[in-house]
Amino acid sequence: MFYGIDPLYWMLMAPVLILSLVSSMKVKSTFNKYSKIPSASGLTGAEVSKQMLRRNGLSNVSVTETGGFLSDHYDPAKKVIRLSPNVYRSNSIAAIGVAAHETGHAIQHAKAYSPLILRNTMVPIASIGSSLSWIIIIAGFIFGALGLVKAGIVLFSVVVLFQLITLPVEFNASTRAKEMLASYGIIPGSELVGVRKVLSAAAMTYVAAAASSVMTLLYFLIRAGVLGGRDD
Question: Model's pTM, two decimal places?
Fold first, then answer.
């Protein structure tokens, strides 16, 4: 068995791959659409993020510009919101939505939102699992060492758990973003429709990533005989 040429692998993964492709195309097209529509507020993504931080008393969190397209993220270790040029400098509806979302993560951190704390705690072992689990599992199959396969599956399970925990973290950050934009009156209510579409499209990429991990784990469990009996 080798997953790359195994029909079962592609049968399980085909729907997920389609979902991933559609999600990636959707987030890019939605962002590009609303990045061309300026907000009536005239505020840039950086200005929105800083205003939201001030309103929540987070003077210890900074906002900086980083390179790349849609590379926006919050760094909890350094308490920095890093925004891509298309978000940091732009006053578009898309930029404001993304900036507000990343600020939502900073607020989660400040308020000790439990799924975020758990996810941050899991980062080191999830990184190791992502790098080594595939090597261990494939080596186990090649050499017929079922114990090695199962050890790799346990390690990969941590990666799957990490991906699943990421979902409520991302959804909650988007919910916080939309609520703050509305309650603080940062943008007109009519523009919230665009913000919702941008953030919903982005959320689907996390759903696709989690689905991919779950189906990969299911494949390994089947081939290891843990589910459905072993297929030698």
Answer: 0.91
